[in-house]
Specification:
The chain is an all-alpha fold. 59% of the residues lie in helices and 0% in strands. The protein starts with 8 loop residues before the first helix and ends in a 9-residue tail after the last helix.
Length: 123
């Protein structure tokens, strides 16, 4: 097993190819050990160079709505009135703690995503 740090995009690409070749490795083999080490190196490299920012709360809500096939009216029982849902999704009103709790409980949106700061369209 010859493993080296990932320092360049070429190293990254080469490592991904090695990982792909090792995906069928059996547990408790040198190949599986190599796969685990290479995966860890790729994860560290990606965190440093390809970090994915968390979506703001409104985008997280819209994404979950799309995943679940929900319409604005489906959020009324979670957020409040139809107009309140519209205000939230159009960034005219911020989420309250109660709304965040409900969105987390009902739609299983992580609290960490819902508590992020975001801009509103309020004057």
């Amino acid at each position: 097993m010859h493993i080296k740090p990932i320092k360049t995009k070429k190293d990254y690409s080469d490592t991904l190819l090695k990982i792909e070749a090792l995906m069928s490795a059996k547990p408790n083999t040198p190949q599986m050990d190599e796969l685990e080490v290479l995966s860890t190196l790729v994860e560290v490299y990606e965190e440093q160079f390809y970090k994915i920012e968390s979506p703001d709360p409104i985008e997280a809500i819209k994404f979950r709505m799309e995943q679940e096939g929900l319409k604005q009216k489906d959020l009324v029982t979670i957020v409040g009135s139809k107009s309140r849902v519209s205000e939230i999704l159009n960034r005219k009103r911020k989420l309250t703690i109660e709304m965040i709790r409900n969105l987390n409980k009902v739609l299983r949106i992580p609290v960490e995503s819902l508590f992020l700061d975001y801009k509103t369209n309020c004057a």
